[in-house]
Amino acid sequence: xxxxxxxxxxxPEIRKKLIFTAFxxxxxxxGSVIPVPFLNIVDEIDVGKGNTILTxxxxxxxxxxxxxxxxxxxxxxYINSSIIMQLLAVAIPALGNLQKEGEEGRKKxxxxxxxxxxxxxxxxxxxxxxxxxxxNYLMVDSNGAAFTGFAAVFQAIVIVVVLTAGTAIxxxxxxxxxxxxxxxxxxxxxxxxxxxxxxTLMRQLLQYLRTGRPVYTILVPIVIVIFLLMIVYxxxxxxxxxxxPIQYAKRVVGRKMYGGQSTHMPIKVNMSGVLPIIFASxxxxxxxxxxxxxxxxxxxxxxxxxxxGAFQSDSWWYAIMYFVLIIFFAYFYSTIQYNPxxxxxNLRKNNGAIPGIRPxxxxxxxxxxxxxxxxxxxxxxxxxxxxxxxxWSLVCEAAIPPLSPDGTDGGMSISLGGxxxxxxxxxxxxxxxxxxxxxxxxxxxxxxx
Length: 449
Hints:
This protein is mainly alpha-helical. It is 68% helix and 5% strand. It has 17 helices and five strands. The strands form two sheets. The chain has a three-stranded antiparallel beta sheet. Strands 2-3 form a two-stranded antiparallel sheet.
């Protein structure tokens, strides 16, 4: 990867694209520290402990959410919009047909996705405003009281408009990277937001070392080694694929003979990527998020206390439900993305066949069996990455007793989850592939000239 970057930097055209991409990332990080008007956030917004939508947004926005900046919503509305459009394309035939119309259809889908993004950004900004107002993070008048009447309405409109505009700007910046930079712009911005949390992670590990406890002196290097091994593991998982052999029949057109070659159909082991983890964590974060808006004395000692406790990320019940939902969404996503019957029909139309398998129904059944097994293998590999931080925290909490009565110096949690690591590795690999392809195109162009 480093060699690829060094070689790409030597090419003037690619160097300009790299500099442009770095400039857009710089603008994104500057916007991530500009505060929204009418907010009174002294240090950080308390997003609570455990797994909530707020902690998820804080992670994906590079802590911009916890500081109330203009990019606090970051690119998450666009990600949610893209996921919704993918699901609707399966449920609504008109959208599905647009995806098959080539470049023009993709432009229409992209335009609809932008409108949906703005609508989701408005809803998300409204929810953020009500959360800030409920937790007294809004600016008050000279008497220390909250604004009322027209002033309160104007305050709400400004906050929602600024946050929505921030999302629109980030979406535009991402598109500029895609057009004039390197890699997928939305992925690059998401990558930059997650990487910006690395100093927080390092500071967290240093705090464990400063406690002076021998157990942390041993565990912190182990965590760093495991983190590096996990990167290698994710790269291997991302590149793993099952190649189904394909044999094309010979056919004569005029005086020329076509076909007769042997090739393969590649199917990735982790075909659903990080989406099952995102879906599962989003659903499991809903009860914990609702709990934040309910006073603790309202459900203390009742059934709801145990119910909310099961959805905290420091419980074994949460880890079990997380694992089950990851499996469910992995199979669900593969079902809507891969149609074995359509794949078998395309092979037959192109005079292709799988050796030893009859065309038609037997081919579709064979492809279905292969995909089902690959999904199981891929989701188990994915679950290892997703569940490791949770299991590690639970084991450390049980094995490391706290020294203080409040229990604040016991256990060892990792703020960077498996979702973040998968996104980081996936974006890095895809960007390197694009760099290699652009250098290859330049090589061929120079050869032809």
